[in-house]
Amino acid sequence: MKYVDEFRNHAIAQNLLLSLRALVTRPWVVMEVCGGQTHSIVKYGLDELLPPEIELAHGPGCPVCVTSLELIDRAHALARRPDVVFCSFGDMLRVPGTSGDLFQIRAQGGDVRVVYSPLDCLKLARANPSKHVVFFAIGFETTAPANAMSVWQARAQGIKNYSILVSHVTVPPAMVGILESPGNRVQAFLGAGHVCAVMGWEEYEPLAARYRVPIVVTGFEPLDLLEGIFLAVRQLEEGRCEVENGYSRAVSREGNREARRMIFQVFEPCDRAWRGIGVIAGSGYQLREEFWAYDAARIFDLGGIVSREPENCISGMILQGARRPNQCPAFGTACTPETPLGATMVSAEGACAAYYNYGRHLVR
Ligand code: SF4
After folding, report:
1. Could you tell me whether strands 278-287 and 267-274 are parallel, antiparallel, or unpaired per DSSP bridges?
2. Atom 6 of ligand 1: nearest residue by CA position
3. Test site for ligand 1: of 333, 352, 357, 364, most ligand atoms within 8 A of the Cβ
4. pLDDT 10s digits, 128-160
5. Environment class of residue 248 by beta-carbon count within 10 Å: exposed (0-12), middle (13-18) or buried (19+)?
6. How far apart are CA 59 and CA 344, in angstroms?
7. Which of 136, 155, 315, 338 is 20 to 30 Å apart from 287, CA to CA?
8. What angle do CA 101, 146, 114 make, to 5 degrees?
9. Could you tell me where the DSSP H helices lie in 128-247?
10. CA of 244 to the centre of ligand 1 (A)
């Protein structure tokens, strides 16, 4: 495919690997904070090609995986209501809640729909005036502009039977949470290129300086990732801790100003619970007060739900880079994509799904 093949060039990859081998003098731990990058790393076996001194830790970069079980259970309670059309991106339908998933709720008669954009929900709301359309607004800074736009447009068009169940999370506070966690081993980060395409990298600069940690904005193709790892390790070897942009074809320092403006017109920062990790201060977005009429959590009474995590799932440790999926006793046995115990085995960006889909359950 044009514009992709050149980022999968075998000879250039070999050269980057040779440069890395010549560069590295001691062990380093580098974390990617993006589920898409995790999948590319595992798909192309990049972690297995690196010099043994370089360890890649997979971070909490899958938005479906970090959505708290309590919020998923709330979403399921909404989807069971006869007066609700519940809309979501497809990934969420198979994520198990405390009892069942959205597919099962749909099979039992719930009106659960997959949409490709939150703006599709506005059409649904107009077409179903006797129902209330709820969109499950999960994701990092990447999905926030469109979700904000849907609320903005709903208000502008006078649509009153639409709301969003918000579970937005943001990357920089999660990095801080990892760096401040007891026993942290991460020494450098690969910044998620698509998040930085929206937000730029300004907000990472104080973080790099305060924690003395290199951060390299990185894309998703094999050469993007190898170059990102090379730049991060070069900083570590040289004792530097800066933000570097390894994805200049998509990312600028200030990001997408219009998208950022839309986010902060509709949302404001809030504390957010991350699944398997706990509450991280300032790590989420919530609707501003002037948009509370579009907040499903305020419109519907969602109290009294008791959530229960599956006993055998160690996805919290995996999301913090403390364990690898193939170190989970249930990986590939009790837990597979057909019988998932945790969200990290379901989502297209989940680390457990990546390890399974690319055959690592066959090699112990
Ligand atoms: S393999 Fe399954 S049970 Fe183990 S951490 Fe991943 S999702 Fe949880």
Report:
1. antiparallel
2. 352
3. 352
4. 999 999 999 999 999 999 999 999 999 999 999
5. exposed
6. 11
7. 315
8. 30
9. 144-156, 171-180, 193-199, 205-211, 222-238
10. 33
- What digits encode the pLDDT tens for the residues 4-40? 788 989 999 999 999 999 999 999 999 999 999 999 9
213-271 pLDDT, tens digit each: 999 999 999 999 999 999 999 999 999 999 999 999 999 999 999 999 999 999 999 99
Instruction: Report the residue among 331, 339, 355, 356 best suited for mutation to probe ligand 1: largest number of ligand atoms under 8 A from its CB.
Output: 331
Which residue matches tokens 């300004």? 202
| Rg of the Cα atoms in the chain | 21
| Any ligand 1 atom below 6 A from CB of 344 | yes
Residue with tokens 């170190």: 327
State both tokens at 98.
Answer: 């405390």
